[in-house]
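Translate sequence into structure tokens.
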Amino acid sequence: MRPSTLLTVAILCMLVFACGPTAAPVIVTGSAPATPGSAAPTATGPAVPDASSGEISLPDEGADHVAEGTQVSYAHQPPASGPHYPTVLQYGLYENEDVPAEYWVHSLEHGAVVILYKCPQACPDLVKALGDMLDLFPLSKWNNRKIVIAPYSKMEVPLMAVAWRVQMPLDRFDQQALIDFYARHVDQGPEDVP
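Result follows.
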């Protein structure tokens, strides 16, 4: 890893821990960097649906770090595990452009839940409803809300809740289903960190 990358990662880690476990969610309106290059997933397999919860269990695609800027070819869209960037995405609402999965898959590894939305046209009402939920999610065992909400165009449904190795597609906004999914899966990633 280059010294400048190590410095960036160290600064981001200090910022995450300096904010403390009760830091408020941040609404982010920018976008993450583009993702040139490519990397292959480490595992494939069938998705296993659970009719009672509406959830789909996916095989583990690994958790390797790849150089920032590398584009990973995930076996499932949206991914629920797999190679990802070493940078940890800040929790909160992201608007406008897709955040590359290689960022938020790292959040999944840390036990966060990611809610993805896809709007063929502008959908300010949906984005507002999702943003209004940020304070409704239960606190994690680290006393923070480990939630990322972001647009994602590479899926077939308008909404998808994702946790490590689990997806829950939704055809419409359902606040209670999203909160319940979060409560079932927060802090369930392979790395036990805030």
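Note: Residues 1-38, 40-44 have pLDDT under 50 and may be disordered.
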